[in-house]
Amino acid sequence: MIKKCGTLLMMFLLLNLAGARLATAQSLSDDESAATRKVKIKVSEIGKGKKIVVTRRDETKLKGVVSAIDPDSFALTDKKTGAETRFGYAEVKKVSRAGMSTGAKLAIGASIAVPVIIVLALLGKRICNESAC
């Protein structure tokens, strides 16, 4: 009886492990296709004629202007050399706009404005106290 239960348990575990590997392999391809869809959507949102930075799957980065958008690929033109490079959406890991984001620009402006306001407030208070405002 114990041998039968042990055998059934071993068969169940082996079948369970085999099914888990198949599910993992399938989800990896789903993740890749989802990443490809995200890149395709991002490129179409940015649009033709805009500056972008393309990060390939091998972590190389290229900067340029989107010169063409096709259903299965897009083209990037380097401004300095004028060379056009065509990318399939599957070979691209990440696409982002070139330059600083609006949040970064606001942070830089705030980091400049806050000390200036503090200095002006302190000087105004000192001048007002000396001249008996």
Task: Characterise this structure.
The chain starts with a helix and ends with a helix. The protein is α+β, with helices and mostly antiparallel strands. It has a 5-stranded antiparallel sheet, covered by helices on one side. The mean pLDDT is 80. It has 2 helices and 5 strands; from the N terminus they run H-E-E-E-E-E-H. A hairpin with a 6-residue loop joins strand 3 and strand 4. The protein has helices spanning 2-46, 102-130; strands at 51-56, 61-69, 73-77, 84-88, 92-97. 8% of the residues are buried.
Give the structure's gist in a few sentences.
Helix content is 56%, strand content 23%. The protein is α+β, with helices and mostly antiparallel strands.
Major β-sheet strand ordering:
4-3-2-1-5
What is the alpha-carbon Rg in Å? 29 Å
Structural class: alpha+beta
Query: How far apart are the first and last residues' alpha carbons, in Å?
Result: 101 Å
Shape: flat
Number of helix segments?
2
Mean of residue pLDDT values: 80
Biggest sheet statistics: 5 strands, antiparallel
- Unreliable stretches, pLDDT < 50, 5 or more residues? none
Number of E-state strands: 5
Portion in beta strands: 15-25%
How are helices and strands ordered from N to C?
A: HEEEEEH
Summarize the amount of helix as a percent range: 55-70%
